[in-house]
């Protein structure tokens, strides 16, 4: 069990923070953006300078599940390119947290170029009847509208996970379409395998969702991750 | 707990046996006396005889070998009856009554008491809330349903979560002259569920395939693991596709429905899945009566273009592979039928002809082909190529599925001859195609680790 899971359980939290979730997945070999959790606006700027612009600045708190809807929309700030923008975003987050009376830190992260890849959702849930299960689908609104997903009972092999991606109606998009580059199907498969293994190995995890996982030509990066724990 | 006491009893007690026609206790007794073994009517408030058997006041008073009790009594007294069964050493019981786990908190409490009585007395209990089971070959009709003795004996075991659907399939089998080795409605699955039933029929000499109707269980993984473990082929009809969640919490939760998990899980664990009860019966029949396919590659031989095209279309939509025939086979076919309409795959002979059986034989012998699907409308002067197929089916040890059309009164007898050879027959092109699709799924899903990926399909030359 990782430290983050242990800490979350001790504090009786229902989920890991995004940074903790990404750390857990990264420790199992998944690619995540370069990022840092900080507790002041100056530290946020320092982190951004180290990471390199553009960056994303997000609220980091166990009390906040839906970051983009939190604090009148100050919870997620994308594509920041200057120290001033980073400082302002961080200050807004700390002020909103004070207003709401919650403990919050700020998560500064390397910005991703969504154009450089295909947005995929990879998830897994502990079903009461089947135990650990995994799914893959195309990310964004497509998954809601078309429900183009593939499922398996976990844990599974990489070959089985590749087969899942091939079952999707959207599978040809992985191979490149109208000039867009082919993406790393194997890396998506590895992410599915990892989600299944983490669920299988940690009874206290109820659900994992990586949405989006950005599939690029030579890797797949978890841009957002949610790890929910048993209540 | 021994499920054998339940499904293969030496004698039967009908608890709540009644002389009043139309009551469950009467109908169950009427069915039970067909059994070739002792049958005891049990009813403390009745005396004399019923169907020539003397009433006994309690199961504990029976002087004879009884393994199965048919409980035709109201729900509230069922737990006491099961307790008595335990004392009497009766190891199997069917509980027809509803009003248990499906009927709110009081019912749940009653079911808990029932399960407790069954565990303490070591009683394998089918139900509650079931219409029972049948084993036609043994004249064992553990049910209150009427006219069940019309259902012929066969080699497909029907195991349905719903008793109603179990009968729907069994009577369809009867309508079509197909038999079942057993038909079981599981009902509430108090202590005999899918796993126990599948394991029992896997070891049953009369059963060559097991077909499941699944609405949802609380141990889906256990069911899948049982299906993988058993030797007998299993096919599943999983109901509930339209139960979709909303996206309130997360996509993963909303998108992972029980239906999706069953469909994915059955594929992962080597179980073909179907969309209708007719397909379930057809797939079960095909798997039970023909050799297991070594691979997913289908050779289609048709005497008429239209049905052949419909079949090919349907097979391809189901993910079947129709590889080219070897040069050798194509040469043989062209020698038999110079200028043949189409001699790759499907092979279309244009019309029935004396050499039709030889064409089927050539395709069946082809190394690229694992499964053969034949379509031929019946032609009076020719009949079916039964003799040729009899020799081929033994030689190649591959499934050969035969679909046809013709006047019922004429073809039924000839189709029965083919079936006796282990050639499943169907009277609609699509039903033949669907049965073959189930064989293809079976081959693909059981081709070893990561079967869905590996395939071992022969490449198609377009």
From TrEMBL, chain A:
- The UniProt record lists the keyword Nucleotide-binding: yes
Reaction(s) catalysed (UniProt annotation): acetate + ATP + CoA = acetyl-CoA + ADP + phosphate
- PROSITE patterns in UniProt: ATP_GRASP
- InterPro entries this protein is in? Acyl-CoA_Synth/Transferase, ATP-grasp, ATP_grasp_subdomain_1
Lineage, top-rank taxon, reads Archaea
What is the uppermost EC class here? ligase
Q: Which Gene3D superfamilies match?
A: ATP-grasp fold, A domain, ATP-grasp fold, B domain
For the ATP-grasp domain, which residue ranges apply?
A: 22-78
Any GO MF annotation of the entry: acetate-CoA ligase (ADP-forming) activity
The UniProt record lists the EC number as 6.2.1.13
| Pfam families referenced in this protein's UniProt entry, alphabetically | ATP-grasp_5
PANTHER family, per the entry: 3-HYDROXYPROPIONATE--COA LIGASE [ADP-FORMING], ACETATE--COA LIGASE [ADP-FORMING]
What name is this protein filed under?
acetate--CoA ligase (ADP-forming)
Q: Which organism is it from?
A: Natronorubrum texcoconense
TrEMBL record, chain B:
Record keywords: Lyase included?
Answer: no
Recite the UniProt keywords alphabetically.
ATP-binding, Ligase, Nucleotide-binding
Per the database record, which ranges form the CoA-binding domain? Answer: 6-100
**Top-rank taxon:** Archaea
What's the EC number here? 6.2.1.13
A single Pfam family it belongs to is CoA_binding_2
List GO molecular-function terms, semicolon-separated. acetate-CoA ligase (ADP-forming) activity; ATP binding
Q: Which reaction does it catalyse?
A: acetate + ATP + CoA = acetyl-CoA + ADP + phosphate
Q: Give the enzyme class.
A: ligase
Return the InterPro entries for the record. Acyl-CoA_Synth/Transferase, CoA-bd, NAD(P)-bd_dom_sf, Succ_CoA_lig_flav_dom, Succinyl-CoA_synth-like
Q: Which Gene3D superfamilies match?
A: NAD(P)-binding Rossmann-like Domain, Succinyl-CoA synthetase domains
Protein's name according to its UniProt entry = acetate--CoA ligase (ADP-forming)
Q: What is the lineage of its organism?
A: Archaea, Methanobacteriati, Methanobacteriota, Stenosarchaea group, Halobacteria
């Amino acid at each position: 069990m990782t430290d983050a899971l242990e800490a979350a359980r001790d504090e009786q939290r229902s989920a890991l923070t995004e940074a903790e979730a990404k750390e857990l997945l990264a420790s199992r070999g998944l690619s995540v953006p370069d990022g840092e959790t900080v507790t002041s606006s100056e530290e946020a700027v320092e982190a951004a300078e180290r990471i390199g612009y553009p960056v994303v600045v997000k609220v980091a708190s166990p009390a906040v599940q839906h970051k983009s809807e939190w604090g009148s929309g100050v919870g997620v700030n994308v594509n920041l390119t200057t120290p001033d923008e980073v400082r302002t975003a961080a200050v807004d987050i700390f002020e909103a947290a004070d207003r709401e009376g919650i403990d919050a830190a700020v998560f500064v992260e390397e910005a991703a170029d969504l154009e450089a890849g295909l947005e995929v959702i990879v998830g897994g849930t502990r079903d009461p009847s089947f135990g650990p299960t995994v799914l893959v689908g195309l990310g964004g609104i497509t998954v809601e509208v078309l429900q183009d997903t593939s499922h398996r009972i976990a844990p599974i092999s990489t070959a089985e996970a590749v087969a899942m991606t091939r079952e999707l109606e959207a599978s040809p998009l992985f191979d490149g379409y109208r000039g867009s580059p082919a993406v790393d199907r194997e890396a998506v498969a590895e992410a599915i395998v990892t989600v299944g293994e983490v669920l299988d190995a940690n009874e206290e995890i109820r659900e994992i969702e990586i949405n989006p996982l950005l599939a690029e030509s030579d890797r797949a990066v978890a841009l957002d991750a949610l790890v929910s724990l048993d209540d | 707990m021994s499920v054998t006491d339940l499904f293969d009893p030496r004698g039967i007690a009908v608890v709540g046996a009644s002389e009043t026609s139309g009551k469950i206790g009467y109908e169950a007794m009427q069915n039970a006396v067909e059994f070739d073994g002792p049958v005891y009517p049990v009813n403390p408030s009745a005396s004399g005889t019923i169907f020539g058997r003397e009433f006994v006041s309690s199961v504990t008073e029976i002087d004879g070998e009884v393994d199965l009790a048919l409980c035709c009594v109201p729900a509230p007294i069922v737990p006491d009856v099961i307790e008595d069964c335990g004392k009497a050493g009766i190891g199997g019981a069917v509980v027809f009554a509803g009003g248990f786990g499906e009927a709110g908190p009081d019912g749940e409490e009653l079911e808990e008491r029932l399960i407790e009585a069954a565990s303490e007395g070591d009683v394998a209990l089918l139900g509650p809330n079931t219409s029972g089971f049948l084993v036609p070959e043994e004249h064992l009709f553990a049910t209150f349903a009427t006219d069940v003795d019309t259902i012929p004996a066969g080699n497909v075991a029907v195991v349905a979560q719903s008793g109603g659907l179990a009968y729907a399939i069994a009577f369809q089998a009867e309508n079509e002259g197909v038999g079942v080795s057993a038909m079981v409605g599981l009902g509430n699955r108090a202590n005999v569920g899918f796993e126990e039933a599948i394991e029992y029929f896997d070891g049953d000499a009369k059963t060559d395939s097991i077909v499941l109707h699944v609405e949802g269980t609380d141990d889906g993984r256990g069911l899948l693991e049982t299906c993988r473990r058993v030797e007998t082929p299993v096919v599943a009809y999983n109901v509930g596709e339209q139960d979709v969640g909303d996206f309130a919490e997360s996509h993963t939760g909303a998108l992972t429905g029980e239906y999706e998990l069953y469909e994915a899980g059955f594929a992962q664990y080597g179980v073909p899945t179907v969309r209708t009860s007719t397909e379930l019966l057809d797939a079960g029949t095909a798997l039970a009566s023909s050799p297991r396919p070594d691979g997913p590659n289908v050779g289609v031989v048709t005497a008429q273009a239209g049905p052949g095209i419909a079949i090919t279309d349907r097979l391809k939509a189901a993910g079947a592979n129709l590889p080219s025939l070897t040069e050798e086979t194509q040469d043989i076919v062209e020698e038999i039928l110079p200028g043949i309409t189409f001699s790759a795959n499907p092979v279309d002979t244009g019309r029935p002809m004396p050499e039709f059986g030889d064409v089927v034989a050539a395709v069946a012998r082809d190394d690229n082909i694992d499964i053969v699907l034949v379509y031929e409308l019946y032609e009076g002067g020719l009949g079916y190529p039964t003799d040729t197929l009899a020799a081929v089916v033994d030689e190649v040890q591959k499934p050969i599925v035969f679909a046809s059309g013709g006047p019922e009164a004429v073809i039924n007898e000839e189709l029965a001859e083919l079936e006796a050879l282990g050639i499943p027959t169907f009277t609609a092109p699509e039903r033949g195609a669907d049965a073959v699709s189930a064989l293809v799924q079976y081959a693909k899903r059981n081709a070893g680790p990561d079967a869905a990926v590996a395939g071992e399909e022969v490449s198609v030359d377009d």
